[in-house]
Design goal:
There is one protein chain. The chain is of the alpha+beta class. Helices cover 36% and strands 11% of the residues. The protein is built from six helices and four strands. The strands form two sheets. A two-stranded antiparallel ribbon has the order 1-2. The chain is elongated and about 60 Å long. The N and C termini lie far apart (66 Å). The relative contact order is 0.09.
Length: 144
Amino acid sequence: MAKTHGLTGTPTNIVWQAMRARCNLKSHMYYANYGGRGIKVCKRWDNYTKFLKDMGERPQGMSLERRKNSVGYIPSNCRWATRTEQNRNSSQNRNLKYKGRVQCLAAWCEELGLKYHTIYMRIFDRGWSTKEAFENATNARRSV
């Protein structure tokens, strides 16, 4: 009789199963974005208890994130992240360089107190430079 860990169906186990499925099962709806792109799960994490030891329990409201989207699921490339952090690390984001730093538009707007829609329109629809869009005096959010 096989010995099990007794943790099947826990939030962390569900994340582990989903990670492995999207990387290994060609029939999985997201396989093309993971396994189909060469994203793999490290051998160590074929064992759930080792995954759990490396990552710990999934904190409520967080999901498994790969720090570098081109690198697979390995302990040094993974962390628990919020939805906002995940969205800002998406391969669909357009990262912008400003004053020697690179981050997505949403992060820049939050940091600089700018209106996202206004900056987006200026850069991507009107072709303004990042510097022009960020430094134009009419960008600042009005204080209430």
